[in-house]
Amino acid sequence: MKTVTLLFPLTQVLSTQAFQLLVSSYKSENTTVGALQTLEYSSGKNTSGLRITHTNTDCGSSPSWLELSSDGNTVTCINEGDPGSLTLLDVQCDGSLKMLSNTSTLGGPVSGSFFNNGSAIGLAHYGPVPGVSTFTITSNKTYIPLQNLTAPFANLSSVDPERQKTSHVHQALVDPTGQYMLFPDLGADLIHVYCINASTAQLSAHTPLKSEPGSGPRHAVFWQPTQPAANRTTYLFVVHELSNTIASYAVTYLSPSGLAFDPVDQVSTFGPTAAPRGAAAGEILISPDNAFVLASNRLAPLFHVPNPDPRNATALQSDSLVTFAPSATGSLRFVQLVASGGLGPRHFSLRGDGAMVAVANQGSASVVVYERDQGTGEIGREVVRASGVGAGGVTNVRWLRG
Ligand SMILES: *[C@@H]1O[C@H](CO)[C@@H](O)[C@H](O)[C@H]1NC(C)=O
Ligand SMILES: *[C@@H]1O[C@H](CO)[C@@H](O)[C@H](O)[C@H]1NC(C)=O
Ligand SMILES: *[C@@H]1O[C@H](CO)[C@@H](O)[C@H](O)[C@H]1NC(C)=O
Ligand SMILES: *[C@@H]1O[C@H](CO)[C@@H](O)[C@H](O)[C@H]1NC(C)=O
Ligand SMILES: *[C@@H]1O[C@H](CO)[C@@H](O)[C@H](O)[C@H]1NC(C)=O
Ligand SMILES: *[C@@H]1O[C@H](CO)[C@@H](O)[C@H](O)[C@H]1NC(C)=O
Ligand SMILES: *[C@@H]1O[C@H](CO)[C@@H](O)[C@H](O)[C@H]1NC(C)=O
Ligand SMILES: *[C@@H]1O[C@H](CO)[C@@H](O)[C@H](O)[C@H]1NC(C)=O
Ligand SMILES: *[C@@H]1O[C@H](CO)[C@@H](O)[C@H](O)[C@H]1NC(C)=O
Ligand SMILES: *[C@@H]1O[C@H](CO)[C@@H](O)[C@H](O)[C@H]1NC(C)=O
Q1: What is the per-residue pLDDT across 148-181, written as a single tens digit (0 to 9) for each?
Q2: 377 CB less than 6 Å from ligand 3?
Q3: Taking Cα atoms as reference points, which of 116, 121, 115, 258 lies closest to residue 199?
Q4: Burial degree of 36 (CB within 10 A; 0-12, 13-18, 19+)
Q5: Which residue's alpha carbon is at the smallest distance from atom 8 of ligand 2?
Q6: Which residue has its alpha carbon closest to ligand 1 atom 4?
Q7: Closest atom of ligand 9 relative to the 250 alpha carbon
Q8: Residue in 150, 153, 155 to alter for ligand 7 test, most ligand atoms within 8 A of Cβ
Q9: Domains along the sequence of the chain with CATH
Q10: Which terms in the Gene Ontology molecular function aspect does this entry carry (predicted)?
């Protein structure tokens, strides 16, 4: 009896500790293709760390973004090359990838989001020709071009002489009702709003959200308070790459269509710490339990972390991750500013249970996994790291089947 009660929790610990990550990276100066790499961690007595188990090079020169299907069985890789591509791959049981189809797109796509229940995808094109494009997905797993929208972005710009000479569409995201797709535009200080036609998947433009001049909206997330369910306001949290702020807006659904945004709060992505010069906020996401919003800070290393080489006493410089707790009225309470484990955390993902965060540090070619307290939202001890990942700069990290 005693053996059984002891073995059960042990098995649980082991199964929660083994995991696989999928990481995309750009080509390096010496390669013509970027990479999709599967990283595997298995704990236990014989731990060999976070190892690269598979490498796939089907996604062209500049894999910039990964989107997993809702069942986790396929991954769509977005290639930022010119032309760009949408490479659809099957995720095999062992974590390796098998290409199903490859479709050319307008140049420079940096993010994408499925819409219409996973039957279509919208892409954000940073440039050289800024714009938005959409595709439908056939039952034979091929993307069919639907719309290329570049004219509305052709003459947009804003105040920053370096980064805002032209529009730079940076992300595609869908609202909680699935009726609207938003595209933060770093170069134009706008968040473009499109209505989705549920039967044709066509996008049509609505009045955009105007951001603060010079702020550079990069990515955004929708959020709805869990309580009270009866009177649930929808909020939009926008992370700005140039001003290093997160703005919170209350969203109103207009009749017959369109969205209105009322600013309710704005915080620094460094919380109470002064934002260093040159900082460039990166990613934003909501924790799986809906209780926290997290963002990353790049190009402004405030931290040091131990060198992974035990013979090397020189600490590594590190950028940061910040956590806030949103209130039911959309205000953001600072929780923690902590090391990302390396330079340039362009992307990070929480495991499905929120107990770990995996960070893609673009400037350090590293992927670092930290423990996270689901109750307080605080990021803690380093679990494991992989160095020397990617061909030339890791761009996106996802948890496979977990
Ligand atoms: C590319 O090749 C050059 C010459 O062999 C070498 O010095 C450099 O370190 C290589 N760069 C990378 C990223 O491997
Ligand atoms: C530990 O795992 C490595 C890699 O799989 C293997 O080569 C080695 O033999 C294992 N060591 C033990 C003691 O099992
Ligand atoms: C997929 O398409 C892109 C863009 O045309 C190209 O660069 C890449 O090589 C293609 N991948 C394969 C495996 O053909
Ligand atoms: C969405 O897609 C899933 C899986 O393809 C399907 O089971 C479900 O019925 C669809 N829902 C709607 C509303 O179309
Ligand atoms: C997939 O379906 C599309 C449209 O139905 C068709 O044009 C295309 O040739 C098909 N591709 C393959 C590989 O069968
Ligand atoms: C959009 O442009 C790409 C790249 O030129 C092209 O392959 C695709 O067919 C175009 N889509 C539409 C809907 O015309
Ligand atoms: C962009 O501006 C140029 C010059 O003013 C004008 O000729 C062109 O029509 C504009 N394009 C769009 C799509 O508005
Ligand atoms: C969606 O497109 C169809 C076909 O063009 C059209 O009949 C319908 O009115 C559109 N729906 C909306 C809500 O615009
Ligand atoms: C519902 O939300 C609105 C808008 O935030 C607020 O004005 C109103 O007081 C709320 N009603 C209740 C019953 O909480
Ligand atoms: C020790 O680590 C630092 C920081 O990464 C690095 O610059 C240095 O080259 C390393 N020294 C040795 C001897 O490997």
Answers
A1: 999 999 999 999 999 999 999 999 999 999 999 9
A2: no
A3: 116
A4: buried
A5: 46
A6: 30
A7: 5
A8: 155
A9: 18-401 (2.130.10.10)
A10: 6-phosphogluconolactonase activity
